[in-house]
Specification:
Layout (H helix, E strand, L loop, with lengths): L2 H11 L19 E5 L3 H13 L3 E6 L7 H14 L7 E3 L5 H9 L4 H20 L3 E4 L9 H15 L2 E2 L8 H10 L11 H9 L8
Parallel strand pairs: 1-2, 1-4, 2-3, 4-5
């Protein structure tokens, strides 16, 4: 069995053989194109399920320059690269790793999490505008550990700047579903949000301003 077929078989074994599994399926008319900022593959599982069920035509965008260290960044990106083709999900990958610029941005901010959210939402909205995609959103809204008010603020500000609609959906009630799907697919599940500060906070049990 080819690697691609093995991946697809794993998806079916994980219980995700529902119609949303494919970008298009008979009887489904896409409502609107949307650019989905993807923080990681595990979070994307449930969000893609919800958006496709609602009829959205999704293009994914992996843009996460705050993830530290580089090996962690690559592992999360590679996990998405392995999974996305198995559900016919097109994804654009930003593989640049501007460590110095990112550290300066985070250190110079009164709220690191909001700065990180804003950077990702602005970059996603800008790309959506360039691609002619009407809406953008993010998989970050599935996490019960992220500050939803900050996400809304960052998304709406990016929407105002670039003139692309920000779709906010509170998917926290699908968090358990994302765990079920990602574990069923034997995906790598990261133990902390992403940046070096979140890694420290995770293991020293410090609460970040953007976390709940």
């Amino acid at each position: 069995m080819s690697e691609s077929n093995q991946q697809r078989q794993s998806c079916y074994s994980a219980g995700i053989q529902a119609p949303w599994f494919h970008q298009s399926w008979p009887g489904r008319a896409s409502v609107v194109k949307i650019l989905l900022h993807i923080c990681c593959a595990p979070c994307a599982t449930a969000v893609v399920e919800n958006l496709r069920t609602d009829g959205y035509d999704i293009t994914g965008y992996f843009y996460n320059p705050s993830i530290h260290p580089w090996k962690e960044f690559k592992r999360r990106m590679d996990t998405l690269k392995e999974w996305a083709p198995t559900i016919d999900l097109p994804v654009i990958y930003s593989e640049e790793y501007p460590l110095e610029d990112n550290i300066r941005m985070l250190l110079g901010s009164a709220n690191r999490c909001f700065s990180c959210f804003s950077d990702r939402m602005n970059t996603t909205a800008k790309l959506a505008l360039e691609m002619g995609i009407e809406q953008f959103t993010t998989t970050l809204t599935v996490s019960p550990y992220q500050n939803q008010n900050l996400l809304i603020k960052a998304g709406e500000a990016a929407s105002d700047i670039h003139g692309v609609q920000y779709l906010y959906r509170d998917y926290r009630n699908s968090y358990r579903r994302s765990i079920e799907l990602s574990r069923g697919l034997h995906m790598y599940r990261q133990p902390y949000c992403g940046c070096v500060f979140s890694e420290r906070d995770r293991y020293l049990k410090i609460k970040s301003p953007g976390q709940v």
